[in-house]
Design a protein that fits this description.
Layout: E1 3-10, E2 19-24, H1 37-41, H2 51-60, E3 67-71, H3 81-90, E4 94-99, H4 104-112, E5 118-122, H5 130-134, H6 142-152, E6 157-164, H7 171-180, E7 187-191, H8 209-219, E8 226-229
Parallel strand pairs: 2-3, 3-4, 4-5, 5-6, 6-7, 7-8
Antiparallel strand pairs: 1-2
Helix pairs in contact: 4-6, 7-8
C-alpha cells in the first residue's frame, strides 16, 4: 500500500485507543478546503514509507500502541487496503478508517470481513450541495448514501462528521443533513481552519461559534448524539 506519512502517536485520531496514524495518497474528491492537498493532488511527490518499514515500527510498538488509524487522501482507493489491514489485525492491533464514503464496495468488503473497529466518514454537505462542496460539479451522492446506510446497519462503532464553512453551510443544509443521517450513532461538527496546506487557501471562513451551536440544535432532533469538536 502507498504510505506517505506516519504519525507515531495519537490520542485523538482513534477514539478510546492509543494509536498511530497512517496517511495514504490520492483521493477521488477535490474538496477546495482539504488540509492534505499535497497528498491529494501530487502524492507521487510525497515521501514514501514502505510496508516493511511500517510493520517493523508496529512490531516495536506492541504493548504500547493499541490501534492504527488509516487516513488520507482517501484510503479506500488503495486496492490492497484489505490486505494491509489484515496484516495489521494479525499483529493484534485494532483499525480505524477515515473515508469520504465514495467507495461503498470497498467499505462493505472491509465490514463483511470484520476488519474495522471504527469508521469516521465525512458528510461534506447536504445532497444538493455536495458537488459544490467537494469540487465536482453535478456529483451524484448515490455511492455516499450507500456508505451511510452500510455504517448505520453495521453494528460497529462509527461517526459521521462535517467540516463547516460559512460559505458552504447554512441552516437549510444542516436541516437536510440531519434528516439524511437520522438515527446515526454519533455526528461531529467541526469548524474550518485555514492553513497554507489548504487546496484553495483564503477562500473559506469558519462560521461563528454561535452559528455552530445553532447548527447543532438544528441537527439534534434527528441525531441525539451530535457534538462540536475542536472549537475554542
Amino acid at each position: 500500500m502507498q504510505i506517505h506519512g506516519l504519525q507515531k502517536l495519537t490520542l485523538l485520531d482513534f477514539p478510546g485507543h492509543i494509536a498511530c496514524t497512517v496517511f495514504t495518497g490520492g483521493c477521488n474528491f477535490r474538496c477546495p478546503f482539504c488540509h492534505n492537498s499535497g497528498l491529494v493532488l501530487a502524492p507521487e511527490k510525497a515521501p514514501m514509507i514502505s510496508e516493511e518499514e511500517f510493520f517493523t515500527f508496529l512490531d516495536h510498538r506492541k504493548g504500547r500502541l493499541e490501534g492504527v488509524a488509516i487516513t488520507g487522501g482517501e484510503p479506500t482507493i488503495q486496492a490492497d487496503l484489505p490486505e494491509f489491514i489484515r496484516k495489521v489485525r494479525e499483529k493484534g492491533f485494532a483499525v480505524k478508517l477515515d473515508t469520504n464514503g465514495q467507495n461503498p464496495d470497498m467499505l462493505g468488503a472491509l465490514l463483511s470481513e470484520d476488519l474495522l473497529s471504527y469508521v469516521a466518514m465525512d458528510i461534506k454537505n447536504s445532497r444538493d450541495r455536495y458537488g459544490e462542496t467537494i469540487g465536482i460539479p453535478d456529483f451524484r451522492t448515490d455511492r455516499v448514501e450507500q456508505s451511510v446506510k452500510l455504517l448505520m446497519e453495521s453494528g460497529i462503532r462509527y461517526e459521521f462528521r462535517t467540516t463547516l464553512m460559512a460559505e458552504l453551510h447554512d441552516d437549510t443544509s444542516m436541516e437536510a443533513i440531519g434528516q439524511w443521517i437520522r438515527g446515526a450513532k454519533a455526528y461531529y461538527l467541526q469548524s474550518y481552519r485555514d492553513s497554507e496546506e489548504i487546496m484553495v487557501p483564503g477562500r473559506f471562513h469558519a462560521p461563528s461559534k454561535e452559528t455552530v451551536e445553532r447548527f447543532r440544535e438544528i441537527v439534534h432532533p434527528y441525531v441525539p448524539s451530535v457534538s462540536i469538536r475542536g472549537i475554542d
